[in-house]
């Protein structure tokens, strides 16, 4: 047995050989070295975790005097300095720890992290790669940082993104950290590889079951691949554990809205905490809810608020335009569509709406210009309504039967390739009836008919925009989590819609 | 902050002057005299860092009944039973540095020092040489020692040797001519398991974790090491330890490391296994006896299974300091008590907050268990040295989660849609009736405004059209020179400050030309401050935009081949000088060569 036996008589203090706090100051030149076993590193670490930095600094200072083995002390000092924001000094401390143990991956890791904080990414990457070479066992942090730095470094190179993913995967393998899962899932999301992203997020759920953020992300991801039921399930699960999670409420509300469950959606939105200071998405969605309930003034209010929060959003402009048109405020609607068209000159639908607006403002000439633009746009074939409306316009306003006939034919051609609501077909039939022979019918009835049809059209239009909008909302939800790029993302995803 | 009080606890003691500073691992309660009167045993950790020895104290109520000095900072205190002789009296184990001091009946009983770690053969060799070598060679040998080994791997003796100055070395070496090289590892934490039968007051085994990542299981009856294991296959310095079970049957030890991993060590294993890697090392950790889950406190409160699966987690409102399990078998619940740095003490039953109260100062150490004659007592020691003892009321019921202040919030959750004024509604009505008229007026006004803006722009450009600045504040002179045969030209602008004394700052040059005709590499240049009398020369390259057949742009004539030069000053809408430079026609034969 290795232990030293001796009996202690009475006061153990006599045996205090190692602990010589009192004798520090006697010989300033020669340090009093405490025995290796009685350092206070454990206490330092405990107090550091509690956050009592003043005590830690005092302890470090005192211990520095008493030991040659300052590796841990310097390491902790560096960490404390870094947390206090003194990065340069922290760096100095960590560099000194390397003098004690030049092959300790941990020290390199801390240097790398500090450089990362200082935004010296290239240097940081070098250090982390060095740390990787000294690793005794896989370390998730080192892999995560390397991956992150590679990502920052090489945004444009395709080859590197594979490296990035590989490192993230390794980090997940050994660390299972939620933020690593999230970052990698985000990379896949940006690449539109939603199944991979879902796979990862599902994996992270096993590490952190019931994590609201992940459940929300997962729900949105399922929406992307059109598995609405699954998405709804995940989002409901998230709401169950945190009833006031903003993004989650928004997504759930959006789904309910798409399912035409307007009152339920409105109730969901009501749970949103601090709703007055929320983003434009929620207000836009609420606005559309009211529009569906035919409360036009409330709808205009909400959409205007959304527009005020985000004046350059195409969807809000378009939707507000539609709502205003339903309220027969054509002059205001005109302004909305003009802005929408300026934002997206390629959008066929907004040109059509602009044309209809101009028609009501008795500006047939410009209406025709707008219609022409709409029809010539490459998107025109995606929406048979454009042809139908133009056909009506030709007949009504220009009295050009041939052209009207031609575009009506276009409309029927399109109908063969896609599913068209019955209302459109009825309107088309009405037009067809009037075309060659029945031109003698009274003028007024025609216009009324058009009005009706157009309002109907707009309604249908709006349905679409609602759904489209919901999708967008979800996108924005996501981009909210990656703050820096939200704007780009929103724009990119909008194009998809 | 509003004072929060709980109705579940009775304040038995609140001694702000106890002067006790300690940490959770140095706090324990035991039936010291086997009289069923449980006493609090606390080893003081002198956080003031004054040269004052740490003390081991026994409290009966708030009275210190026993007080003795310790030879250093204690890292852990455990009470354990070593044999089955009646009356069953526990012994107290206090770890200080690399040793454990055992007390029986609060009398020193035994001191055990951990075995030394391996000494490098090289170090031993150098010491052998040192004892026979002459003084002149010391330097070389010591340098050898320094260069080949990390200080952390050296024995204390070698460390001392290195730190000495040359004159002292000889004496030191002579004193230690037969060196006993030792490398001791400090004990960082301890815990106990049962030896055989898992019942109260049955004999225990002591589990010791050292800074060198070794775990020892000791039989305190004869102070022999029963089992020795490593924490993990890689570097994981133990920081917190918690265990359950008995040595004979089955046991598991959970170790939280400074590096942030949580490892499990089971019976018979020589090496622990990492089950969780935390983002930030755990501040406090405990293996719950009741359902064998591990609760970990770091940034948040997390609960893991023994396989490392996260069962749930909860974010904490504030920084946390410590945690203690609160097992209440009579209510059939097991709570976790958490102290936050702002002095709030919260009780959680799984994820639900069931109770909380506020005290003064942040809690550093907590213990829940029997004390005195009471069964359920919570002991709290704060950073500033107060000792608080709270007794759980027998009527306490933790089945309902406490209501947070959500109530009045919920009442106001109707959608507050922005209201529209009456004027707005009237305007709406008007628009509905006269949409076309409103639109026409708006459009014509818009055109009028655009016209007005264009007029003003032209006006400004015209009035500034000169090579001199008319502004008295900033008198300037501009000269222009065009070099080259085309299609590349060098436009040299010379700007001179013609005032007597005034320095002109914040100037910039803007060049403007028809982009279909000319390509100007730098269209905007900020200028350095202009000193009177010293002209500033700036070169600009202007290139004709040739068509694909190397000819001049079609609509380019002698009249419109001009470059406008504008001198502007910051925060001044009107340019100081607006001048045009007529560009020469390029030599036609030069065009072919490009």
Automatic annotation (TrEMBL), chain A:
Q: Does the keyword Nucleotide-binding apply?
A: no
**Pfam families on file:** TPR_19, TPR_8
User: Could you tell me the superkingdom of the organism this chain comes from?
Assistant: Eukaryota
A GO BP entry: cilium assembly
| TPR repeat intervals | 71-104, 178-211, 212-245, 280-313, 314-347
Sequence segments annotated as region (Disordered) = 461-497
Q: Which UniProt keywords apply?
A: Repeat, TPR repeat
What InterPro entries has UniProt attached to this entry? TPR-like_helical_dom_sf (IPR011990), TPR_rpt (IPR019734)
User: Which Gene Ontology terms of cellular component type are present?
Assistant: ciliary basal body
Q: Does the keyword Repeat apply?
A: yes
What family does this chain come from, according to its entry? Answer: Belongs to the BBS4 family.
Q: Which PANTHER family match?
A: BARDET-BIEDL SYNDROME 4 PROTEIN, PTHR44186
Record protein name field: Bardet-Biedl syndrome 4
Which species? Answer: Chironomus riparius
UniProtKB/TrEMBL annotation, chain B:
Q: Organism's domain of life?
A: Eukaryota
Q: Name one Pfam family in it.
A: BBS1
Bardet-Biedl syndrome 1 protein GAE domain: residues covered: 476-588
Cellular component, GO annotation: axoneme; BBSome; centrosome
- UniProt domain Bardet-Biedl syndrome 1 N-terminal: residue ranges: 9-266
Q: Name one GO molecular function term.
A: smoothened binding
Recorded hits in PROSITE patterns, A to Z, give: PROKAR_LIPOPROTEIN
One biological process GO term for this chain?
Answer: protein localization to cilium
Q: What protein am I looking at?
A: Bardet-Biedl syndrome 1
Give the species this sequence originates from: Chironomus riparius
